[in-house]
Amino acid sequence: MLLNSPLKIKNISLSNRIVMPPMARELSEEGKVSDALIDYYYRRAEGTGLIIVEHEYVSHEGMASPKQLSMADDSVIDSYKKLTNAIHSQDSFAIAQINHAGLESISSNKINLNQITLDDINYVKESFVKSAIRSKKAGFDGVEIHAAHGYLLSQFYSPYTNKRIDKYGGSLENRMRLHNEIIKEVRNAVSDDYIIAIRFGAYDYLEGGSKLEEIPIAVKSFVNSGVDLIDISGGLCRYVNPHSKEAGYFKELSKIAKESCDVPIILTGGIKKARDGEDLLSKRYCDLIGIGRALLMDSEWSKKALKEDLK
């Protein structure tokens, strides 16, 4: 069974191909991990190869919701150590997802990507780098840069929202510039064996938005900049495909990404049955299967799935 086969990424070896993708639970306490959140992840870690913890804001200007987790200052590190220890105790691995909401921020100081200065952009980069360093200190096995779902990096990537006329706007290379600069600076700040992932909003499904033919160029550039893992999702359409609700509804995008680079690809979206995950793996749409809502509803989904006979 492919779903139960191991996969090595950098210095870790996942026991299986099941990934719990980031899903905001709004259970933080002043940005720190609460006991309720630790219990939530602990119960879902058993049987799950990899957990990508819900997004954490890199600065208060990039906060997406009132009870979102923070990675914006050192005071949160100890609470994350309790979380990573809990996940590791279940023989699972943990990646932190760091994010800046941009125009989607609830902060009164939210930034507009089309108006911010180069100094502001440098501050954003610095915030991502510092958050990545904190994730490592907190015991995470890697960090995922959130570049999907209409948040800041997704806004930069899409020509629908990015109207800048400087080196961060216009061409595809310019619209990816901030992503690649962040990846490179994070890589310089963490060790070579520390995992860097990107949640890539690969397509907007929107006229005037990003294009399918841009995906191979984008993923190759991210890998060249230092990414070890690509987590495929939607862009301005967020985490849904407006044209499909089938299991693995972003599989068209993940297939393009997988055929364009040599790092593992995660596919998430509407996958509720182990057999569907196995089918998507066998048809080489991806290397890892993200199980979101099903794991949210049933903390024992992974354990049950691995016991199924899918031959």
TrEMBL record:
<dbReference type="InterPro" id="IPR013785">
    <property type="entry name" value="Aldolase_TIM"/>
</dbReference>
<keyword id="KW-0560">Oxidoreductase</keyword>
<dbReference type="GO" id="GO:0010181">
    <property type="term" value="F:FMN binding"/>
</dbReference>
<keyword id="KW-0285">Flavoprotein</keyword>
<dbReference type="InterPro" id="IPR001155">
    <property type="entry name" value="OxRdtase_FMN_N"/>
</dbReference>
<dbReference type="InterPro" id="IPR044152">
    <property type="entry name" value="YqjM-like"/>
</dbReference>
<keyword id="KW-0521">NADP</keyword>
<keyword id="KW-0288">FMN</keyword>
<feature type="domain" description="NADH:flavin oxidoreductase/NADH oxidase N-terminal">
    <location>
        <begin position="5"/>
        <end position="307"/>
    </location>
</feature>
<dbReference type="GO" id="GO:0003959">
    <property type="term" value="F:NADPH dehydrogenase activity"/>
</dbReference>
<protein>
    <submittedName>
        <fullName>2,4-dienoyl-CoA reductase</fullName>
    </submittedName>
</protein>
<dbReference type="Pfam" id="PF00724">
    <property type="entry name" value="Oxidored_FMN"/>
</dbReference>
<dbReference type="GO" id="GO:0050661">
    <property type="term" value="F:NADP binding"/>
</dbReference>
